[in-house]
Amino acid sequence: MFKQTVTAMALCLAAGFAAAQSNARYEVTITNITPGQSFTPQLVVTHPGDAILFRLGEPASEQLEVLAEAGDTGPLTEALGGVAMDIQTIPGLLGPGEQSSVVVTGQPGRGYISVAAMMIPTNDNFVAMNRLKLPASGAVMQLVPAYDAGTEYNDQNCANIPGPQCGGAGEGYSPGPNEGDEGFVHIGNGIHELGDEDSSGNVIIDPKTYDWRNSVARITVRRMN
Known about the structure:
Blueprint: H1 12-19, E1 24-32, E2 38-39, E3 42-47, H2 62-70, H3 74-80, E4 86-90, E5 99-106, E6 112-120, E7 125-133, E8 139-144, E9 146-148, E10 186-187, H4 207-210, E11 217-223
Helix pairs in contact: 2-3
């Protein structure tokens, strides 16, 4: 499967736009509104309109695949570094009903903001706000869905899922393409009943605890000055 690169998202115009002065501060608040999922460290980036984290119906970039399967924001941060106005990662897990906040800078009325984090325990689902225009004043709020990167088969098997819910022993990033993956980014469709364990005794994620119905997060962006 051909994988797009995030660095190709930005046109020449983007480089000049990112070099312009970023003179406004924004408080970004993320609220996990799922009953059982947790969010891995949350990437928050302000950027020009030419940059975009993903497009529905198209293959995920390798950098997004790493975030969606392993919760690692590093590759996406590095790829966006040349065009971003500001990039922050909120550390730690964000559990059900919890909030996290960070302050970023950006150009009011011209710049955009995106947010992304892996959802655990899942194979390759992630929560994201993809390219919201920064408000010139006041605040904007969005309810955002879960997305599936389409890069790993949704077997819900703890052997293939990182994080504390699976005991921390599950595999994270598995370079694709992989058998059974969908091959394109799409709306996540939750956790399903697949039994309690596989033939090797590995735990299968239980929908009674970890299923969701979109939306999965509330994100508020408030201009501070």
